[in-house]
Amino acid sequence: MCLAVPGKIVTIDNSNEDLKMGKVDFSGIIKDVCFDLVPEVNVGDYVVVHVGFALIVLNEEEALKNIDLINEIMSY
């Protein structure tokens, strides 16, 4: 089973024109993420990430609901 997790974009690095990268905050854990599949993203957006790639952009309300559900599952 695979899991894609929502997180909030904290930085975007446009220095490499071949690869759009940045950092995403997953409830306090910051990871490097590739944004090539969602080039329209901005700092502060929420994205769903799987194996280091942002797959889709979520609105804040939907992202926070998903984060709450994941936290609830993890508390069992």
If you had to describe this structure to a student in words, what would you say it looks like?
With 76 residues, the chain is of the alpha+beta class. It has a single domain (5-74), classed as Roll (SH3 type barrels), CATH 2.30.30.140. 20% of the residues lie in helices and 42% in strands. It has one helix at residues 60-74, and strands spanning 5-13, 21-26, 29-34, 46-50, 53-58. β4 and β5 (53-58) form a beta hairpin. The protein is elongated and about 45 Å long. The two termini are 19 Å apart.
How many domains, in number, for the residues? Answer: 1
The SS-based structural class is alpha+beta
Low-confidence stretches: none
Reading side by side through the largest sheet, how are the strands ordered?
A: 3-2-1-4-5
Number of helices: 1
CATH topology label: SH3 type barrels
Order of helices and strands: EEEEEH
* Cα-based radius of gyration, to the nearest Å: 12 Å
For this structure, the quaternary state is single chain
Question: Distance between the terminal alpha carbons, to the nearest Å?
Answer: 19 Å
Main sheet record: 5 strands, antiparallel
* Beta-strand residue fraction: 35-45%
Shape: elongated
Number of strands: 5
The name of the CATH architecture is Roll
Helix content: 10-25%
What is the typical, i.e. mean, pLDDT?
93
- Name of the CATH class: Mainly Beta
